[in-house]
Amino acid sequence: MTIRSHADLKNLREDGISLLRPERPRICVGMATCGLVAGAGAVFEAIREAGKTYGMDIVLVSTGCIGCCQQEPVVDVYMPGLGRVLYARMTSEDGQKLITALSVSEFPGEHALAVIPEAGSVAPKGMGILSRLPLISELPFYAKQHKIILRNSGLINPESIGEYAAVGGYQGLSRALWGLSPREVIDEITRSGLRGLGGGGFPTGKKWEVCSRAAGTARYIICNADEGNPGAYMDRTILESDPYAVIEGMTIGGYAIGASQGYVYVRNEYPLAIKRIRHAIEQSEALGLLGEDILGSGFSFSIDVVRGAGAFVCGEETALIASMEGGLGEPRARPPYPAIKGLWGQPTIINNVKTLASVSAIVAQGADWYAGIGTDGNAETVVFSLVGKIANTGLVEAPLGLTLNEMIHEIGGGGLDGRRVKAVQTGGPAGGCIPADLFHLPIDYSSLSQAASIMRSGGMVVMDEETCMVDVARYFLSFTIEESCGKCTPCREGARHMVEILTRIIEGKAGPGDLAMLEEVALWVKGASLCGLGQTAPNPVLSTLRYFRDEYDAHVNEKRCPSGVCRALIRLAIVPERCTGCGLCLRECPVGAVSGEKKQPHSIDAALCTRCRTCYEICPEGAVEIVR
Amino acid sequence: MPLIAQPSHPPAGAVLARLHEIHAAKGYLPEADLRATANDLAIPLSQLYSAAAFYSAFSFQPRGSHTVQGCLGTACYIRGGDRLLEKIGTSLGVKPGETTPDGLFTIETVHCFGSCSMSPVIRVDEETYGRLRVDRVARILKKFTEGTLGEHSIEEQEK
User: Fold this and answer.
1) B128 touches chain A (CB under 8 A)
2) C-beta atoms of B129 and A271 within 8 A
C-alpha cells in the first residue's frame, strides 16, 4: 500500500485506531531501555505466558517510555468499556496476577498507580478500584507537565506506523505537502517561536530560512541524536518511543529547505534507539511516506541512519558533520555555519530530536497553537531528565517557567531516601551547579545563565548532602580531558591543569594559592577555547567555586571533606553497638579490611581500608560511619 | 562552478558504518581488514586509521568474549558508579581498558548510557543492569563465567 490521498491516510489511521482500541484487553508494557533495565522483559513474558494459560484473548504490546522511570516496569492496561489503568513497579508475579484478575474482567488493585482517562469508559474514572485511583494528570509527577514532544511516548507501539497515524501522525506532513509552499512551512515554524531544543536555543525557522536561501548543489537535513551529555536521555527515549514523529518532522524540514536526503546521527550507546528508528524508516518507505513522490506531492526524500562511535564532541554540529564525512570528529570554527556550508560543503540543517518531534506537532496544529503555550518570549516546552539523588527519577516535559523548587520538590518528590537536596546540576559538563537556596528561580534560559549554569540538554542531576561539590567539579573536568579532541591548547592543556589542581584539593595536598590559580585557569580556558566544549568546560568549576566556596575552603584549609566523599580526607568506622556481625561488609569489602567473628561487632583496619564506602552503603543496620 | 573537479568521496556515514561492521564481525579492527576497507572506499589508509583511532568504540586489539562496561555518567557517578567499576576491577583482576588473561572479559568505562534513571548501571555485552549496588556485581559476572545468560531483572535483587 502506498499513501497518496486523504482516503489512504484515513485508512491508515483507522487501522491504527483498531490496534489502539481493540475489542479485547490491550496490555502495554513499557519497553524502552529504562523499562528493560528494570525488568520489563520478564514482565512481558510472564503476561504472555499467563495469557496463554488462561486462554485469554489479549493484545500484548511493547511500548516506549511514559516518563515516570522511577515506577518502571510500567504496564498500561486497557479494558474495552471498563477503562484504562497504569500499573507501576511490576514483577513477573504481578504480571500473572494481572491476567488472573483480567480473566474475570477486573482491574487488580495492587500496583495500580493511576487511571488514564478514556473516552467511552463507564465513568470518568470508572468503577471499582478505578474510582479510588487518581487520574494520571493528578499525580504530582504529571500535574504540571505539558506534553508536546513526548505526546505519544509510552502510549503507542513505536513499531506501528498505523498507531502513530491514529494519534495524529502525518497531519503535519500532509498539510505541508498538500497545502503549503516550502516558504509557508518556514513561515509557520518561524511564527510558532520554536527554538532549537538541543540546547542552542537558536530560532528554528530562522535557521531553515538561511539554509533555504543558501547557494548549493544539494541540501541536507540532519537529526542530531548524538546525545552525549551525561544525565540526559530524552533523545534516546523519543527515538525508542515515538520515532515516526521525528521522521515526520525531518521530512517536513526537508521539504521546507529543499533537501532530498536526511540523516539521523545516533549515539553508539543507544542500540535500541538505532533499531527502532531504522524500523520506522523501513515502514515509512514501505508506505511511500519516505522515498519518491511522497504523498503524491512530487517531493522525494530519504533518510539514512549513521551510528556514532563513542565521541562526545560529535554532538557539536561541525564535529558531527566531520564524523559523517569519514574524518576525525573534530569541530571547526564557525562561521560559516552549517546552514550555509555543512555536509560536503553544502547547506545543511542540523536539528535536535526534540526540535524535529515538535515540528511535526506544530505543522499539524498551527503556529498560533504553539506560540500560545509558554510564558512571555518562551513558546516551547522543554524536556528535562530528573536524575541523581532524587526520589522520582524520570522525564518531565513542561513549558519554561516552572521553578526549580516545583521541579525538584513537587515533581521530583525531593531527595532520595528523604535526604536534603543540596544542589542541582544542569546542562551537563557545560553547565553549572545551582544551590538549593536559588531553587525559587524559574527554569528558563536567562535565569539559569544568571545562576552561572545553562539549560542545554535539559539534564538535571540532583545532588544531596552526601555529594561533594569539589569531587563533582573534578569529575566533570576529567570528563572533558577524555572527550577533548585535543585540537586547541586551552581546552587540551587547561582542563588537564584544572584536574591537577582539583586532585590536589581532594587529596588534601592543596596550598593557599591553588584556588586562585584554579579560577584563573578556568577563565582562560573559557575565553580562549575553539569550540563550545572547551568554552564551557570550566563552568562546573566556576559555579561550584561561586556557590560552594565553603566546601573548597574546608578541603584546602581544614583538610576536611564535609560531604564525606573524598577518600584521603575521611575514615570509616563501625559503631560496635549497632553492628550485628552479619558479615555482609566482611564479604563485600574489596580489600579485606573488615574483620570480626560471626554475630560479633566487626571492625575496619584503617591501614588496609581504601575508603570506598562499600560497607557504608550496604550495611543493613547503618552501623558504618564516615568520620569526616 | 569549481574549475577543478571535486574529488569523489564515500557516502556520508560510510566510514563509520564499515568500521562498525568489521568490529562487530571480528571483535576488533585487524590491520588487514582496515587495509582492504581503505582500498574499497578509495580513501587513504591513514584517514581510515586516524578515524578508527579517534573513536572510543573501536579497538585495535582483540577483546574479551564479554565486554563489561561501567557507566560513569553524572547520575551513575554520584550514585556510586565508580565503586561498581572498582568492584568489577577487583573481581576480575584487571583495570578498565584491559582484558582478563583468560580472554573472557574486557572492562571499559562509558560516559553515560542514557539510562540515568536506573543509575548506577553497568552493561555486559548487550544487557544493561541498573539500580545496582556493589554487592550485586559478583552475581552478575558469575552468570557470564558460567555461560548462563541471565535476565536483567531487579526482581531477584529485591528478593
Assistant:
1) yes
2) no
C-beta of residue B36 within 8 angstroms of C-beta of residue B68: no
- For the segment A563-621, what is each residue's pLDDT rounded down to a tens digit? 999 999 999 999 999 999 999 999 988 889 999 999 999 999 999 999 988 899 899 99
- Joined grid coordinates for residue B158: 529485591
Counting runs of H as helices and runs of E as strands, what totals does chain A give? 27, 18
- Which tens digits make up the pLDDT trace of B48-94? 999 999 999 999 999 999 999 999 999 999 999 999 999 999 899 99
Cα–Cα distance, B70 to A230 (Å, whole number): 13
Residue A292, phi then psi, degrees to nearest 5: -80, 140
Angle at A70 between CA A96 and CA A116, to 5 degrees: 65
B81 touches chain A (CB under 8 A): no
**Nearest Cα to A104, choosing from A132, A131, A79, A134?**
A79
Query: What nine digits make up the cell of A395?
Result: 522525564
> Chain B contact for A96, CB < 8 A?
no
Judge residue A237's burial from the number of C-beta atoms within 10 Å of its C-beta, 0-12 exposed, 13-18 middle, 19 or more buried. Answer: buried
Polymer length of chain A: 628
Of the pLDDT bands very low, low, confident and very high (cuts 50, 70, 90), residue A375 is low
Q: Is B74 on the interface with A (CB under 8 A)?
A: yes
Phi, psi of B122 (to 5 degrees): -130, 160
A614 at interface of B, judged by CB pairs closer than 8 A: yes
Phi, psi of A199 (to 5 degrees): 125, -25
Q: Please give the pLDDT value at position B154.
A: 40
Q: Which domains does chain A have, with CATH numbers?
A: 15-141 (3.40.30.10), 161-369 (3.40.50.11540), 381-464 (3.10.20.600), 469-557 (1.20.1440.230), 570-627 (3.30.70.20)
Rounded Cα–Cα distance for residues A458 and A229 (Å): 9
Provide the 3-class DSSP secondary structure of residue B155: helix
Q: Nearest by CB to A614, which of B83, B115, B153?
A: B83
* Mutation for testing the A interface, residue in B113, B116, B124 having most A CBs under 10 Å: B116
pLDDT tens digit sequence for A414-452: 999 999 999 999 988 888 999 999 999 999 888 888 888
Torsion angle in degrees (nearest 10) through CA of A118, A122, A125, A130? -110
Query: A31, A37, A153, A467: which to substitute to probe chain B, counting the most B Cβ within 10 Å?
Result: A37
DSSP A430: G
Q: Which domains does chain B have, with CATH numbers?
A: 14-54 (no CATH), 66-149 (3.40.30.10)
Taking contacts as CB-CB distances below 8 angstroms, the residues of chain A near B131 are 37-38
Asked if A428 reaches chain B (Cβ–Cβ under 8 Å), the answer is yes
Distance CA(A437)–CA(A431), nearest Å, equals 18
Identity of the amino acid at A114: A
Distance, in Å, from the CA atom of A37 to the CA atom of A454, rounded to the nearest integer, reads 30
Task: Give the pLDDT of residue B157.
Answer: 42
Q: What CA–CA distances, in Å, run from A304 to A31, A144, A269, A277?
A: 24, 37, 18, 10
Mean residue pLDDT across chain A: 93
Q: pLDDT by residue (tens digit) across A171-222?
A: 999 999 999 999 999 999 999 999 999 887 899 999 999 999 999 999 999 9
Q: What ipTM was estimated for this complex?
A: 0.91
Checking if the pLDDT of B149 tops 70, the result is no
